[in-house]
Amino acid sequence: MKKKLSMEIAVYMLTSRTAGVFGITDRGKLEIGLAGDVVAFDSDTVGASPLRRVHDFAAGADRLVSDTIGIDAVIVNGALLRQNGKDARDPAGRLAGKLLRNGRAA
Q1: CA 13 vs CA 2, 50, 69, 74, 105: distances in Å
Q2: Is the same domain home to 44 and 22?
Q3: What is the pLDDT of residues 55-101, one digit of tens each?
Q4: Per the structure, how many domains does the chain have?
């Protein structure tokens, strides 16, 4: 029998707890003054597609990838990054994320 986590505990384990373990002090919670990174998902369909092999590295080298399912939107630092599986910003342009150094965004 598989043990199940509540949705609240699963989200906590993937966000606030993980940020705490790695000492990332300004991530993992939705609070005024923090980065505001959010993933909006459908709890009934969220998951990953089966693995598939792609050959997109130099000299035709391969890697395994899995696409997301049930992710409605990704918001980074309060800016919409992806919605309905499509980029909402030019990936070649400036992105909203910041490099983390010593547990804080640089």
Answers
A1: 18, 24, 20, 18, 21
A2: no
A3: 999 888 999 999 999 999 999 888 899 999 898 988 788 888 777 77
A4: 2
